[in-house]
Design goal:
Low-confidence stretches: 42-46
Helix content: 25-40%
Shape: globular
Strand content: 15-25%
Number of helices: 10
Order of helices and strands: EHEEHEHEEEHEHEEHEEEHEEHEHH
Structural class: alpha/beta
Distance between the termini: 33 Å
Largest sheet: 7 strands, parallel
Mean pLDDT: 92
Length: 348
């Protein structure tokens, strides 16, 4: 099979490329090597890699001819540092995806696997034992300042309990990155309907693993903790550390993409579907820091600090991906995160 892989020099892209080549697929790599996604110049993974910008995809339609599936990983990542980042997210993620889809239609490529994210959900799913499901809004700044971090029931003011989020949950993006990921999914679904294409969107949870980029303002929390430990400093845990997340190893994420590349070509024309890509083993942020410190001390420090816009809990159901794609994560967070504490990072 011939796969065009955008973001092929990135953290996740290189892992996907390796698994595809290992089984004998032809990989056509494309990467713009934007500084926000790369710490220094990444090594070439081998094969046919083109340094191109996905926003200019209509200029490289010939590269798409003869491709069976496009695996679209290229994106600006992270929550965004300031509102000045908005044009970067809109350009690389929204415009870039729209340009790629138009180029695919021009070249006659009808199958797409899209990297999306759990951030499209905003807050997770919540229930009050007495008053049922609720949809909390943004947490008030005054609550966060006073150390009240949990979302509260609107009827009894008791902390809401988190539940697993299914793929049919409402979308509630709360950052520049999240808005751009919703847009990518919706552009792709519209393209599938209009061109009789087929798309699978993979909503990644917190991805970690060897060769992750070093700590930057756009890094995930695992890389930030990992970089602190490397400098001999304790990981600094925001809020009370009780925030629940799902951490999934990059090897599992790559395997989910390979399974989706195989599955998408068999879908009905016009079909689009989204899947959570997660370990299915929720962990608290305090435990994440503890697993990492166990592999490379010192002990984490819970600071009580907070970031406006952060959600309290977001953990997803792995059931649909298991049932329809045959994907089940193999690396348990406790083991994988402890190993990640001493794994090489990008630029090491």
């Amino acid at each position: 099979m011939k796969v065009l892989l955008t973001g092929s020099l990135g953290f996740i892209g290189q892992a996907i490329a390796a698994q595809l080549r290992e089984r004998g697929d032809e990989v056509v790599g494309v990467d713009a090597v934007i500084p926000q996604a790369h710490s220094g110049e990444p090594g070439q993974p081998g094969g046919d890699v083109h340094r191109l910008d996905v926003r200019e995809a209509l200029d490289w339609v010939d590269l798409l001819r003869g491709v069976d599936v496009v695996c679209h990983q290229a994106a600006m990542v992270g929550a965004g540092v300031t509102v000045a980042d908005l044009p970067l997210y809109a350009g690389h993620n929204d415009l870039g995806t729209a340009a790629l889809l138009a180029a695919m239609a021009e070249a006659g490529v009808a199958s797409l696997v899209l990297a999306s994210s759990m951030v499209v959900y905003g807050e997770g799913r919540y229930r009050c034992p007495e008053h049922g499901h609720q949809v909390p809004g943004a947490r008030p700044r005054e609550d966060l300042r006073s150390g009240k971090f949990d979302n509260a029931c609107t009827a009894c003011d008791r902390p809401l309990q988190w539940e697993l989020v299914p793929e049919d949950a409402r979308l509630d993006p709360r950052s520049s990155y999240a808005v751009s990921k919703v847009a990518q999914e919706q552009y792709s679904a519209a393209w599938a309907r209009q061109s009789e294409g087929r798309v699978i969107a993979l909503r990644y949870h917190n991805v970690y693993g060897p060769h992750m980029p070093r700590d930057t303002p756009y890094s995930g929390v695992a890389a930030i903790f990992r970089s602190a430990l490397e400098q001999g400093e304790p990981p600094k845990v925001f809020e009370d550390g009780g925030q629940m997340r799902d951490f999934v190893h990059v090897s599992d994420v790559a395997r989910a993409n390979v399974l989706s590349i195989d599955a998408v070509r068999g879908r009905e024309p016009g079909a689009s579907a989204a899947y959570n890509v997660c370990s299915g083993r929720p962990v608290s942020i305090a435990d994440v820091a503890g697993f990492l410190a166990r592999g490379a001390g010192p002990e984490p420090v819970v600071t009580g600090d907070f970031r406006i816009g952060d959600v309290r809990h977001i953990v997803a159901s792995p059931a649909k991906a298991a049932d329809e794609l045959g994907f089940r994560a193999e690396v348990e967070p406790e083991t994988g995160l402890a190993e990640f504490a001493t794994a090489p990072l990008r630029g090491s």
